[in-house]
Here is the input.
Amino acid sequence: MKKLITAIAGISFLVGMASADVDSDQKAFINYFKTAFPNVEFADYTNGVYSLDEGSRSQFEEILDGIPPYEEAVEKGGKEFVEFGLNKCAAFKDPAAARVKHPYFDEATQKVVTLEAALKACYQEQTGKKLGSKKGKIARISAWISDQAAGEKINVKVEGAAAQAAYDQGKAFFYGKRGQFNMACADCHVYNAGKKARADILSPALGHTTHVPMYRAKWAGLGTLQRRYGGCLKNMRAKPISAQSEIMNNLEYFQQAMSNGLEITDARYRK
Amino acid sequence: MKKTISSISAVATLAALFVMPLQAGAKEMTDEEVTFGRKAGNCLACHMIPGGNLPGNIGPPLLAMKARFPNKADLRAQIWDATEKNPNTIMPPFGKHGVLTEKQVDQVTNYIYTK
Here is the structure.
């Protein structure tokens, strides 16, 4: 009981909606997980649920040691990147740098630009056609771009009042209750990380963005981070929200910033 | 920005109000089926309950309920709206948000009360 009370006291200061700078938010975030899981190294949070669960970790490592089920798709994404002329857009001249730069707050449009948003814009510019937001081509190409940055660290910047407002909105969304089940993202991925919902172990939100687009066995394919957001919203019986809408981009901005300092990884496998 | 947030949560609340509670189809579900069914109470998602398989462990095991809740109405109230006791709870307000019908809340209460 005492443990529970301290945990709740810890939470209420995390939830504090008042605008706080990213560094102090992230410090609190990291400390929360350090207290909850003292044996997990910070760098290991790139491995999601496998950082907490010894049981499924060996299976994860076996899959990575072999030929991961997404390898071919990522290679294809690399070919598509060239085939559709995406290397000609200024944003993607240097793919590794592009992964590290996004998401960023664009002062000109006053909006967060995710890697996928930049890809969609570039694809349209080059081909005159629209690119989806969740799976297939966009996920393959985005995964290939991210592979080029493997080993580099997430480093999202929130500078200026408008960027801060976008970040704050994403943060409020993450901690806010919603849907018929009245749940918050944080309910599962902060306060109950490591616990089991039926047979699913809940991943820590720290590191949620290091391996995106992720491969999921359940999807039998790759999906963008925001594809996953859609799945979780559905599980909370919340109103569906389109991928790449402003609020989802702000949520991603917040989530990416909370993973600052963690390595971008090409180990994309999740159950 | 703040306005967007409040309108989003207003929409979510409205959406929740209009989602029809899961009605038992042609065949009535048993008390156990309402409690365990993934599309009904799905209490096993979070609670160990004797007789149920593959439970989660987000909430405490549901055992000795008569001793925990001498007054059965208190147990029903916990299931109908867990936020009364703990505003931050992850447990869904099954009755209040229409996840279950009033009758189904009674069924779950009856079933859990025997554990």
